[in-house]
Fold:
Amino acid sequence: MLAVVGLVHIAVAIPVGMATPFLPIGLPIAIIGVILLGRNSVWGRRWMEGIMTRHPRVERFAPNWLMRLVFGRDKRENLKVTPD
Structure:
């Protein structure tokens, strides 16, 4: 149930972020959704790990405290970022 609430938070954060471009209101909503999804769903955690493997910039910009909170591990140090 909490994983579904996390998905709803992530889905709601996108239009809220677009509606308030100068105030970062959508960012905390998305962070809460990612935490709920990553901590309460195996498939959600696998999906997010796959996104970070395919797009290493996503993990590079994520803070270390968020990585520990969601995935239970620190950030990978040697990420190769190739130009798109």
